[in-house]
Amino acid sequence: DGGITQSPKYLFRKEGQNVTLSCEQNLNHDAMYWYRQDPGQGLRLIYYSQIVNDFQKGDIAEGYSVSREKKESFPLTVTSAQKNPTAFYLCASSIRPVYSNQPQHFGDGTRLSIL
Amino acid sequence: AQSVTQLDSHVSVSEGTPVLLRCNYSSSYSPSLFWYVQHPNKGLQLLLKYTSAATLVKGINGFEAEFKKSETSFHLTKPSAHMSDAAEYFCVVSSPNTGNQFYFGTGTSLTVIP
């Protein structure tokens, strides 16, 4: 079955540590997205990529970094510069959005906590 | 600018009674609108979408929504609630003038009382 796989499901970060969240999709989608979800808030866009080797900052990119070396993969690194990283992180993908209003498909998320 | 307002943060209904989750949007251009459902510790699942075709949109699990341009609303309804409907629901707007970026509401938590 096609879908989006996020790993790990739970992740713990120590002070001063960078951690990387994995996102893989086999839907052959061009566009991929990372969102952060905090209790009582909607999803906020961290980064997005519409094509391999290209990505754009979203609304809350500070303290995060991404890469898009393969169409299927869009890992997110939470750096030590992100002072409040505790949240639920969701990865999504869609058909390239520039020419269509297609829905985004979501993975099951990674919950990041601080030790 | 695009934005979404979900008018109720929490809604409680009894099993078997109708569900109404309210959503108002703001968009400079003809928007696309979506409803997603999220169960605890899970990702978002698409319920239905409106993309300038029929104004009454039918989705999965018996849900439907009506696009009302004059009221800038896209409320989600279901005739009869089931216990499995208890979840968080998100209304989302996107439009071509912002590269089809998604703008999420803050969510409505639906409780179904047996």
What do you see in this structure?
- The complex is a heterodimer of chains A (115) and B (114).
- Helices cover 0% and strands 49% of the residues of chain A.
- Chain A is an all-beta fold and 115 residues long.
- In chain A, the strands form two sheets. In chain A, strands 2, 4, 5, 6, 9, 10 and 11 form a seven-stranded mixed beta sheet that branches.
- In chain A, a hairpin with a 2-residue loop joins strand 5 and strand 6.
- Chain A is globular, with a radius of gyration of 13 Å.
- With 114 residues, chain B is mostly beta strands.
- Helix content of chain B is 0%, strand content 53%.
- Chain B has strands at residues 3-6, 10-14, 19-21, 23-26, 32-38, 44-50, 56-58, 64-68, 73-78, 87-94, 103-104, 108-113.
- In chain B, strands 2, 5, 6, 10, 11 and 12 form a six-stranded mixed beta sheet that branches.
- Chain B is globular and about 45 Å long.
- The termini of chain B are far apart.
- At the A-B interface, strand 5, strand 9 and strand 10 of A face strand 5 and strand 6 of B.
List keywords for this structure.
A: 115 residues; mainly beta; four-stranded antiparallel sheet; 11 strands; B: 114 residues
